[in-house]
Design a protein that fits this description.
about 180 residues; four-stranded antiparallel β-sheet; 4 helices; 9 strands
Amino acid sequence: FIYNQWNSNIISNLLSKSVTVENEIIQCHFPRLSLNSNTLDFTISNALQPICRSWFYPIVIDNYNIRLILPHLNCTVTFYIGEGDKEYEQVPIKLFYDLNILLLSDYFTVQCIDNTRQKFYPNLPYASIHYNQNVRKRLANLKKNEDDFNVLILGLDSVSRLQFERMLPKTFNYITNELNGIVLK
């Protein structure tokens, strides 16, 4: 089970898978919240925890390609291809160490098992940008105008906003002070 605040979203539901090992459900909870605040009130079920640390990065995404960088792992990437609220097609592809594979979609998961099959890793969700020729053509034909607006809107719910302020204070200060960002509470 991958904890996601938007469980009604089709992509979130596809990513919300659990792994069963020897009749035990193992799961990771994302996002990993710092539980030092009494304003957070939720329960976490008793489940075996696989390796769920934030430092576990088995892949590198570079120039619209994905590459496995840990040779001791057997990994599979599952791309979710589709648009909007329609059914997404799942396309699994086995990853090989140090071999580039072109990203097929913006959303994908990576599931890994070590070569001895003794360690199970979580089904890690990723979001990236895949190469799209149609988008490239549209960008090439855009007329640049100095009067065009350049606005960034970052929307977070109240729990995520508080977590963002706590866990990324430099980024929060940069957005609010350097970019003159406005926080709507």
